[in-house]
Amino acid sequence: MFQVNFDPEMLRQIIREELTAILEEQANPYYDLPPLLTRNELKQLLRIGDTKAAELLGREDFPVFREAGVLIPTDLLFRWIVQHTTWIDHNSPNAPLVYKLMRQVPT
Length: 107
Fold this sequence. Notes:
Blueprint: H1 8-25, E1 36-37, H2 39-46, H3 50-58, E2 72-73, H4 74-83, H5 87-91, H6 97-103
Antiparallel strand pairs: 1-2
């Protein structure tokens, strides 16, 4: 008969190391972003070119801080994206409540 002996603490350590590795791989890159993005950082983040960036920056509802040049507040950018994304509304009627509430947050 096959018998296995293991140390529970060793198993915990292995699980902890694997979870840490997974979390590091899945780390949210947005935490590394500055509070204000430049035009070039916006283009790089959204993977868009000059034309689309100019179009976005020219919109009245797009969050831009112009008092110090053209800077985009990162938190307002992501809020704007959520508020202007309608795909989930049309394709997932059972969208999580958190997402629906995020869309209702005033800018």
